[in-house]
Design goal:
By secondary structure, the chain is an alpha+beta fold. Helices cover about 40% and strands about 30% of the residues. The structure holds nickel (II) ion.
């Protein structure tokens, strides 16, 4: 990462519950100030985004997500989307978590761009929460 020199002050509006959670995490991790915690969070966000953009070629990976199964039509939409990526989906697991939530893991092997595309499509469905994508190359 390039050297960071000048500091610029910004004002950000946040929901108080989000800020409370953030503060409690950075306190627990021993940060000296909220600003330092925010700087680290922004760096991590940038690194993750740049890494996602760079990936290409054959990869293996997982998509995990929670979703609200009472959301109308969502189960069907998730099935529909997955059937469009048959060539790269190797297996999937469904866990009924509680009254409201289901948890799914999809394991994939295929083109990095297609893997990201599928994750993006799942993420954009209403009622899907906490989507996580992990990928790796087989030959490292
Ligand atoms: Ni379920």
């Amino acid at each position: 990462m390039e050297e960071e020199k000048e500091l610029t002050r910004i004002g950000v509006s946040l929901p108080s519950n989000l800020l409370n959670k953030f503060d409690s995490i950075i306190r627990g991790r021993g940060y000296s100030s909220r600003s330092e915690g925010i700087r680290d969070a922004i760096r991590a966000y940038i690194i993750e985004y740049e890494w996602m953009e760079r990936e290409s070629g054959e990869e293996i990976g997982t998509i995990t997500y929670l979703y609200d199964h009472s959301q109308r039509g969502l189960g069907d939409q998730l099935t529909e989307v997955q059937h469009q990526y048959l060539n790269m989906i190797k297996t999937s697991t469904h866990i009924h978590l509680d009254e409201e939530n289901c948890f799914e893991v999809i394991v994939m092997k295929g083109d990095a761009k297609q893997i990201k595309e599928l994750a993006g499509r799942i993420m954009s469905l209403k009622g899907v929460k906490h989507v996580k994508l992990t990928t790796t190359h087989g030959g490292i």
